């Protein structure tokens, strides 16, 4: 770290006689765009057929400047986005409180339910958010709010995270970026791009990252909750004038992590703390975070990758035909421990083997016409297998901890299978009524067939047989945009969508509710939004605001049966998400860029009877069999999220271009689990970050150097809280204050 800072100081002091002043980038840190407004195209992927609902776009160079390198960190720049990740196999995304209905970390990870927020990379749908390993070498990251099922498929009822990567170039370029910081942070990325022939160009991006975690194991001294990642992505681009392009991509990523929760609290119910009582009986040494005392540690090894082909044909008349083909694989191999200082179980976890493939064909009408439209067909396939073990120690400790001798030496084995096929025709278009009014409408029908099975051995044996269900999931969008004056636009949009049904491949649910409970109904979403955008002062000031209302019926979420230690899927009634958001971007001159955005989101159940009670109820005497959650807040949905950033740039002596920037992200408290347990209420927190940097010419290329400070005030916060055994609460700590430096050279 010290050597890197010395090198940074030397570089910053070198007078580069060859450096020439260049105009500064005109971007802002969290540029907000409203897609669908009829205007000059500024991005190749701007689509006038897309409904004009709320969208946030952050450019890749600004992510690099802010040292934002993961999908989870993106929520610090985009309000309303909530991402929780405890390991690569367990990433939960919601937008405005809508998306992933998870919320339990106990028992098996149930593979029968997809997320309601779709993640796309270069037009390829990722069935698991964890398939997006990093945010390196991207052109921009885009977050679309509201139901987006018409253009993005069934599993986009909560919104879309859309990533576009940089394409190969026909002008040679290369770069090497090295970052280092506190707590073992290291990140190295190399990129080379250029022509291979008259029509072919290639691009290769190689990356390695490493970081220690925020948790210390007292027994071994190991730093836990961190990990390493190695990856590469190669692309080939064929271009024949403007008529035909073919973009081929292949990627591979290999990561190792040590996800570790800490004990946050234990609770006494009716005067008795059963967690401490059981710990004393079993000999468990109770340690509260940020340290742990573990006789065994968690380890997860993930290998993933895939390939894609994007082809576009453009006719002389302006028609465009696009084909996107993809094949991906994901394999997670965990070795999980029990989180105690004594061995109850070890060498446990759910191995996941996931393969997905897709094919989309889309035809776009010529642009600039009174009616612009697109239609197409999408096919998605998935084959997913799980193999889970819970291996209990062959000692008296499991009996002392679990109050049962039945677990001694037991290896509980669960085998899961999921097959999914979906065929989706769609069409959407925009009618331009004069120069001031646009009407956008679209429909999609997702015909899905899903099958799967669950088999459990050695304890409460169960075999579901092969289960199968079929649904036709409609989506629809209608929006009107009006531009009453130059620089002003307003819109009203309504949409409907249905998320895929689920298969409850868990023995716990069938034993309680019968075989009918194995089938989970599709989640249905109705949403409406009214917004306005103004571009004032010669486009130096952009203002945006909207109000929204969304109703979710047949909410898909997870319950947990502690008797069988099983997670099971369920339809949990109906809830509403309503609120308002506003954002502003101000660039008073070429030096300053200021952004601010906030979302107020009120989410509550309008009908949720017979819900599972929180542990503060179930652990008390005479606990009811269920609780009524009607009127209660929905979990994983902070009521207020806000982001602000400011950047000042200038050109100094010898043509050096420098900047200083600051950002702040705030989110209010939320419930961490679906039962709205007071034990798992995640406190609100704010995170501040600062950066300073400079760059200049060096021979035929450019160098840059920056210092960055994340979580500048060393705020202690939890990314996630969940209920553990016997009234305990486990939490995953957020990142510590980290000072780092980045050096880069590119030509």
Summary keywords:
747 residues; mainly beta; Maltoporin, Chain A; 22-stranded antiparallel beta barrel; five-stranded mixed β-sheet; 7 helices; 43 strands; 6% helix; globular; transmembrane beta strand; iron transport; receptor
Plain-language structure description:
- The strands form 8 sheets. This protein has a 22-stranded antiparallel beta barrel.
- A hairpin with a 5-residue loop joins strand 18 and strand 19.
- It has 747 residues and is mainly beta.
- The two termini are 26 Å apart.
- It has a single domain, classed as Maltoporin, Chain A.
- It is globular.
- The chain contains 7 helices and 43 strands.
Summarize the structure.
It is a multi-pass membrane protein. With 747 residues, the protein is mainly β.
Low-confidence stretches: 1-45, 103-108
Number of domains: 1
Strand content: over 45%
Shape: globular
Q: Examine the secondary-structure arrangement and name the CATH architecture.
A: Beta Barrel
CATH 4th-level superfamily? TonB-dependent receptor, beta-barrel domain
* CATH secondary-structure class: Mainly Beta
For the record, give the distance between the C-alpha atoms at the N and C termini, rounded to a whole number.
26 Å
CATH topology: Maltoporin, Chain A
The total of helices stands at 7
| Helix fraction bin | under 10%
Radius of gyration: 26 Å
Q: How many strands?
A: 43
The chain-level structural class is: mainly beta
Q: What would the average pLDDT be, to the nearest integer?
A: 87
Q: What profile does the largest beta sheet have?
A: 22 strands, antiparallel, barrel
């Amino acid at each position: 770290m010290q050597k890197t800072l010395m090198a940074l100081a030397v570089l910053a002091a070198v007078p580069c006689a060859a450096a020439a002043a260049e105009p500064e980038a005109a971007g802002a840190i969290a540029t907000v765009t409203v897609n669908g407004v009829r205007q000059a195209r500024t991005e190749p992927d701007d689509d006038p057929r897309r409904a004009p609902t709320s969208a946030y776009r952050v450019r890749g160079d600004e992510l690099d400047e802010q040292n934002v390198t993961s999908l989870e960190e993106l929520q610090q720049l985009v309000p309303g986005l909530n991402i929780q990740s405890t390991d690569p196999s367990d990433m939960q995304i919601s937008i405005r409180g809508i998306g992933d209905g998870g919320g339990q970390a106990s028992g098996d990870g149930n593979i029968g339910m997809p997320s309601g927020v779709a993640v796309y990379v270069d037009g390829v749908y990722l069935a698991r958010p964890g398939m997006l390993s990093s945010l390196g070498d991207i052109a921009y990251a885009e977050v679309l709010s509201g139901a987006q099922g018409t253009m993005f498929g069934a599993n986009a009822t909560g919104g879309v995270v859309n990533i576009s990567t940089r394409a190969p170039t026909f002008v040679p370029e290369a770069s090497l970026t090295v970052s280092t910081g506190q707590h073992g942070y290291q990140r190295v990325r190399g990129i080379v791009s250029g022509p291979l022939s008259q029509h072919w160009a290639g691009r290769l991006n190689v990356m390695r990252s490493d970081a220690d975690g925020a948790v210390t194991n007292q027994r071994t001294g190991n730093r836990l909750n961190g990990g390493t990642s190695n990856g590469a992505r190669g692309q080939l681009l064929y271009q024949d004038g403007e008529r035909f392009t073919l973009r081929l991509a292949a990627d591979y990523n290999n990561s190792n992590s040590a996800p570790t929760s800490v004990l946050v609290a234990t609770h006494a119910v009716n005067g008795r703390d059963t967690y401490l009582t059981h710990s004393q009986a079993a000999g468990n040494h109770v340690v509260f975070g940020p340290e742990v005392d573990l006789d065994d540690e968690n380890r997860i090894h993930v290998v993933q990758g895939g390939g894609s082909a994007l082809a576009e044909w453009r006719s002389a008349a302006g028609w465009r035909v696009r084909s996107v083909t993809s094949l991906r694989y994901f394999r997670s191999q965990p070795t999980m421990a029990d989180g105690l200082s004594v061995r109850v179980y070890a060498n446990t976890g759910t191995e996941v083997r996931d393969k997905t493939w897709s094919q989309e064909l889309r035809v776009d009408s010529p642009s600039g016409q009174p009616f612009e439209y697109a239609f197409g067909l999408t096919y998605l396939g998935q084959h997913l297998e799980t193999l889970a073990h819970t291996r209990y120690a062959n000692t008296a400790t499991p009996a002392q901890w679990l109050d049962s001798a039945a677990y001694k030496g037991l290896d509980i084995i669960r085998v899961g299978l999921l097959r999914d096929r979906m065929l989706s025709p769609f069409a959407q278009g925009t009618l331009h009524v004069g120069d001031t009014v646009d009407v956008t409408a679209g429909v999609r029908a997702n015909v899905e067939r899903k099958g799967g099975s669950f088999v459990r051995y050695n304890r409460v044996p169960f075999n579901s047989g092969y289960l199968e269900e079929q649904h036709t999931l409609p989506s629809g969008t209608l929006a009107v945009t009006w531009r009453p004056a130059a620089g002003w636009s307003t819109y009203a949009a309504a949409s409907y969508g249905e998320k895929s049904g689920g298969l409850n491949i868990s023995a716990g649910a069938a034993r309680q509710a019968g075989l009918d409970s194995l089938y989970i109904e599709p989640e249905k979403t109705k949403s409406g939004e009214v917004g306005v955008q103004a571009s004032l002062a010669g486009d130096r000031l952009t203002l945006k605001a909207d109000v929204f209302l969304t109703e979710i019926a047949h909410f898909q979420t997870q319950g947990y049966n502690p008797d069988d230690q099983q997670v099971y899927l369920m339809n949990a009634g109906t809830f509403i998400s309503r609120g308002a958001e506003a954002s502003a971007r101000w660039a008073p001159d070429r030096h300053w860029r200021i952004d601010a955005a906030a979302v107020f989101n009120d989410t509550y159940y309008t009908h949720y009877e017979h819900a599972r009670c929180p542990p503060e109820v179930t652990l008390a005497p005479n606990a009811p069999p269920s609780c009524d959650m009607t009127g209660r807040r929905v979990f994983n949905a902070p009521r207020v999220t806000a982001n602000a950033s400011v950047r000042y740039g200038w050109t100094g002596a010898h043509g050096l271009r420098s900047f200083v920037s600051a950002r702040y992200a705030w989110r209010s408290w939320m419930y961490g689990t679906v039962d709205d347990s007071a034990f798992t209420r995640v406190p609100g927190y704010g995170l501040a970050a600062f950066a300073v940097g400079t760059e200049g010419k060096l021979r035929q290329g450019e160098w840059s150097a920056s210092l960055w400070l994340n979580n500048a005030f060393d705020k202690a916060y939890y990314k996630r809280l969940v209920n553990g055994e016997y009234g305990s609460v486990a939490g995953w700590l957020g990142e510590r204050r980290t000072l780092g430096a980045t050096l880069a050279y590119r030509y």
